[in-house]
């Protein structure tokens, strides 16, 4: 039995976005190992029940401390050596750098997954520019491994990284996000509400766009156009980009948002919504929220950043707005709020688009083929 080892920074992230693919790989005959920073026992128990072998690594996702990173590098190198995988699949920035370097040193097969480019490619402060330059250098080193493959969630990221790093085009592939199972996220006609419901669900980071969405709500409220803004998400208290909980509570008490906290059933929230909004400036992959919303049949509105516009086609299954423009966001949101028939048409188109291009079975089949081809190199 061949050993497939996933290396990812956060256990919850793997659980949400990668478990379905890992189960498919297990069913295809791979022994599944997961290296991650495991925080609680609940996810470990779930993974063990699925037959996965878990390895905890001292990796801090948001830390830029070089000593912490080097400690994680040594820790991960030891674990990878003990597992001796037939294929290492690295996901998110730090695991890609650490795992990619280890694979290059041993000339062993490795898959590098870019799930968006992250904040290191977003901000232009001097420290970020230095980190970005160093990151590109490391990726160039990793790309020297003839048995490396680079996966992207959309073509914009593929073109950008290929240009910066100089990766051979044949070593890159686009797989459209995590995919979504349309049999689980079933289509439904939106319910009529006296006041329409707009859903925003994400990590509570400024770069995810909640601030702009609230500004848009204020603009529309002045025009006597009202909607309920349901907000669900994960707090990111240790992140410099985090929205303070006190401010979230203030918005809630002011009636600007309906704060739902962390939700274990975003699917249900989407079903209850009329519109799903994600005006993110974060360098996203293909956001899962928009995948789920499209599968359910909800019109979406998003900024023209990351992979949002690889899923959402303007005026077809949603609206794409120029980033950092709360005024334009308000205009387009007003258009959706006032036109329920257009929302229904966009919802049906979104469902069709997901089934044709973003279904999880398509993503799984492409991923398993990459594993087979890479191990066989």
From TrEMBL:
PANTHER family: GLYCOSYLTRANSFERASE, SPORE COAT PROTEIN SA. GO terms for biological process: carbohydrate derivative metabolic process. It comes from Salmonella enterica subsp. enterica serovar Javiana. Residues 3-119 form the Glycosyltransferase subfamily 4-like N-terminal domain. The keyword Transferase applies. This is Glycosyltransferase family 1 protein. GO terms for molecular function: glycosyltransferase activity. Coiled coil: none annotated. Residues 185-353 form the Glycosyl transferase family domain. It comes from the Bacteria. Keywords: Transferase. The keyword RNA-binding does not apply.
């Amino acid at each position: 039995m061949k050993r497939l080892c996933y290396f990812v920074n956060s256990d919850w992230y793997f659980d949400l976005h990668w478990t379905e693919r890992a189960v498919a790989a297990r069913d295809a005959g791979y022994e599944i190992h997961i290296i991650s920073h495991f925080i609680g026992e609940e996810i470990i128990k779930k993974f063990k029940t699925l037959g996965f072998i878990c390895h905890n690594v001292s990796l801090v996702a948001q830390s830029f401390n070089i000593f912490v990173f080097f400690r994680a590098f040594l820790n991960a190198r030891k674990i990878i050596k003990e597992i001796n995988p037939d294929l290492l699949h690295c996901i998110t920035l730090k695991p890609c750098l650490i795992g990619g370097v280890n694979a290059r040193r041993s000339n062993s097969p490795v898959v590098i997954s870019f799930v968006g480019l992250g904040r290191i490619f977003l901000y232009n402060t001097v420290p970020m520019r230095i980190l970005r330059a160093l990151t590109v250098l490391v990726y160039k080193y990793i790309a020297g491994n003839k048995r490396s493959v680079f996966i992207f969630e959309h073509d914009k990221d593929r073109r950008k990284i290929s240009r910066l790093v100089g990766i051979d085009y044949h070593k890159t592939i686009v797989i459209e996000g995590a995919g979504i199972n349309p049999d689980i996220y079933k289509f439904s006609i939106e319910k009529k509400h006296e006041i329409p419901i707009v859903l925003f669900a994400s990590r509570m980071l400024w770069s995810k766009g909640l601030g702009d969405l609230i500004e848009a709500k204020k603009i529309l409220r002045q025009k006597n156009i009202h909607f309920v803004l349901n907000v669900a998400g994960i707090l990111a208290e240790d992140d410099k980009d985090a929205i303070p909980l006190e401010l979230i509570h203030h918005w809630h008490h002011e009636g600007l948002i309906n704060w739902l906290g962390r939700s274990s059933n975003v699917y249900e929230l989407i079903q209850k919504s009329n519109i799903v909004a994600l005006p993110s400036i974060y360098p996203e992959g293909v956001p899962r929220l928009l995948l789920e919303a499209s599968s359910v049949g909800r019109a979406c509105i998003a900024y023209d950043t990351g992979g949002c516009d690889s899923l959402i086609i303007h005026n077809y299954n949603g609206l794409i707005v120029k980033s950092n423009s709360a005024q334009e966001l308000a205009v387009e949101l007003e258009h959706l709020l006032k036109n329920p028939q257009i929302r229904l048409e966009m919802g049906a188109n979104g469902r069709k688009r997901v089934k044709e291009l973003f279904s999880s079975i398509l993503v799984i089949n492409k991923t398993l083929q990459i594993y087979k081809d890479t191990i066989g190199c």
